[in-house]
Amino acid sequence: MIELPLRKSATYEAKIMTICTTAEGMESFKFVKEGRTGVEIIGRGYDAAGVTETLRKKQKIVIEVPLNCAKCKKQVLTICTTAEGVTTVKFIRDGKDRVEIIGDGVDAAEVTQDLRNKLKFAKLVHVSKLD
Q: Could you tell me which PANTHER family the record lists for this protein (predicted)?
C-alpha cells in the first residue's frame, strides 16, 4: 500500500493509474480511500520503491498571475498554499508577474484553474520535475 494525498481530480487519479499500471510485474491495482488514502498494488517483482518515488517526485510549477495589489497577492498565496502537496510558494516579478510553486504531486492544472476562477487570469507557464 502506498499512501498518497488523493484528490477529487480525474486527471490526478488518471496520472496515478498510468504510473501504477505500467509498473513491471504489476498484477492488480486499486484506489484505497477508506481510512487512509492511497493505492494498493499487487504483483510479483515490481519495484515498489521506484513506483513510490515516481508518484512523489517534486515538481516546480510556474504560473503567470496578476500581482497588481496586496489583495491579489493574498488571494494567490491562499490558493497556492492550500493546494495539496505544496511545500514552497514564491513570487517572481521580472517583467511578468509569476508565482513559483514547489511540491510533491501538485496538480498544476487544478491550481491554475483555481487561480483563474478567483483572479480572472492565470496562465500555466511550465511544469518541471526537480531531482
A: OS04G0464100 PROTEIN (PTHR46371)
Note whether 51 and 20 are within 8 A (CB): yes
User: Exposed e or buried b for every residue in 44-66, given b needs 16+ CB within 10 A?
Assistant: eeeeeeebbeebeebbbbbbbbe
Delimit the domains of the chain by residue range: 2-55, 58-129
Work out the average pLDDT over 95-123: 90
Query: Where does 58-129 sit in CATH, by number?
Result: 3.30.70.100
pLDDT band for position 91 (cuts 50, 70, 90):
very high
Mean pLDDT for the chain overall: 83
User: Taking the model in full, what pTM does it have?
Assistant: 0.61
What residue type is assigned to position 76 of the chain?
Answer: V
